[in-house]
Amino acid sequence: LDGAHNPVAMRALAESIKTGFTFRRMILVIGVMEDKEIGQILRRIVPLSDYVIYTRPAYYRAARPEILMDKGARLGKPGEMVPLLTEALEKAKDMADRQDLIVITGSLFTVGEAMTYFDPGTYRPDDLD
C-alpha cells in the first residue's frame, strides 16, 4: 500500500519497488483522482507491472477506470478494469501467489479504502470515537 498520488511520489514508489523488493510478478491495483496528472502517474508505475487492475475508490473525485485503462493500455502492459475497489483487491489476491507483489496505489482514498477492506476492525474511517 502506498498513497502516491502525483508523478513525483509515483517515481519514488517505483524506485522503492525496484530496489527494495524481490518478486516474480507485480500486480498493480491503481485508482487515481480525476484531477491528477493521470498519464504521468501511470507512466511512472505501469511499466514495472506485469498486470494492471484499473479501479476506483468510492469517492466522487475518483477517475473512472475506463479513463485509467485507456491511458494505461498505451504503455503495453496487460490489464483490466474492475470498477469496484473491493472486487479489484479480490481479483489481485486471487491472481497472486507467494512470489508475487501486489501494489495498491494512486490515491490516499484508494489506500484508505483498501486498509478498511483488509482490516475493518482497525480501520474505520467513519468511526469518530
% residues in beta strands: 15-25%
Q: How many independent structural domains?
A: 1
Q: Output the CATH homologous superfamily.
A: Mur ligase, C-terminal domain
- Poorly predicted ranges (pLDDT <50, ≥5 residues)? none
Shape: globular
Please tally the β strands and state the result: 4
Question: Can you walk through the features of this model?
Answer:
The protein has 129 residues and is α/β, with parallel strands linked by helices. The protein has one domain: Alpha-Beta Complex (Protein-Tyrosine Phosphatase, Chain A), CATH 3.90.190.20. It contains five helices and four strands. The chain has helices spanning 7-20, 38-45, 65-73, 85-95, 108-118; strands spanning 26-30, 51-56, 79-84, 101-105. A four-stranded parallel sheet has the order 3-2-1-4, sandwiched between helices. Helix 1 (7-20) packs parallel to helix 2 (38-45). The model has no long low-confidence stretch (mean pLDDT 93).
Highlighted features:
single chain, 41% helix, four-stranded parallel sheet, 129 residues, alpha/beta, 5 helices, Protein-Tyrosine Phosphatase, Chain A
Write a short abstract of this structure.
The chain has helices at 7-20, 38-45, 65-73, 85-95, 108-118; strands at residues 26-30, 51-56, 79-84, 101-105.
